[in-house]
Amino acid sequence: xxxxxxxxxxxxxxxxxxxxxxxxxxxxxxxxxxxxxxxxxxxxxxxxxxxxxxxxxxxxxxxxxxxxxxxxxxxxxxxxxxxxxxxxxxxxxxxxxxxxxxxxxxxxxxxxxxxxxxxxxxxxxxxxxxxxxxxxxxxxxxxxxxxxxxxxxxxxxxxxxxxxxxxxxxxxxxxxxxxxxxxxxxxxxxxxxxxxxxxxxxxxxxxxxxxxxxxxxxxxxxxxxxxxxxxxxxxxxxxxxxxxxxxxxxxxxxxxxxxxxxxxxxxxxxxxxxxxxxxxxxxxxxxxxxxxxxxxxxxxxxxxxxxxxxxxxxxxxxxxxxxxxxxxxxx
Length: 331
Hints:
- By secondary structure, the chain is mainly alpha-helical.
- It is 53% helix and 7% strand.
- The protein folds into 3 domains: 8-155, Rossmann fold (3-Layer(aba) Sandwich); 175-244; 249-330, Arc Repressor Mutant, subunit A.
- The radius of gyration is 23 Å and the shape is globular.
- The mean pLDDT is 90.
């Protein structure tokens, strides 16, 4: 589990590549934005179509012709009705059928898994009813960016997947690993990251996507066969803030509720969120309203707990934190 844009997809792709080296069949399915059970089934079917190759692709062409259409289900039919479940169950059963035919085990990665609940509040029970039969046929990885929802899916006794998977939280990358990777990439193109590396590492705070985004624009601002400097870093950061990520940051801010904005403003600027002085600075209440906002931000993955901070929290996105501190929210 990790916030969106934290490198989950890249990690899942790398895991799939490693699994294929070991002889498994890797299938990656992204459920981001699904609305209906039919959407879920179509995403699964499309993943097999695009990712299987050779004899397995030909096998799937034949199997696909036997699958029931995953079209819209009449409103009068509940998902608990077998007629509504069947098209989805047939697609979920593909690893079992592949194993029975070819004897090959699959590694199935379900990304943004929490979005399946948009189709139906108990869709996880339908999914489990099939994949729990897959024993030798498949292993599963469930990934998601709505941290609170993902945690509830696998830790609540009321959910179908309770205690069925081990939670793995993606934390910040080790700065030394980022440094080694960035230095190697610069050297591979006859450039040197130079003194731009230190502020890049400090600013990105281990955030995988932000570190790579900023490193790219430092590299782009470095002359051929040249060496980046702190000035190069400053220019790259300003370009990201003003151009490359400007719309993204404004969109993230505008999507928040008022209480959530006040909480992020307080924490980004180092003010204890429940202090009276903070309430005077950012407005709102320091009691239930602030507590509710922080809980919502934690569940969404926008905030993470940080016992080493005087606020008790930190923003997951260091770029957004800097943007807020600089007062760019009103620009």
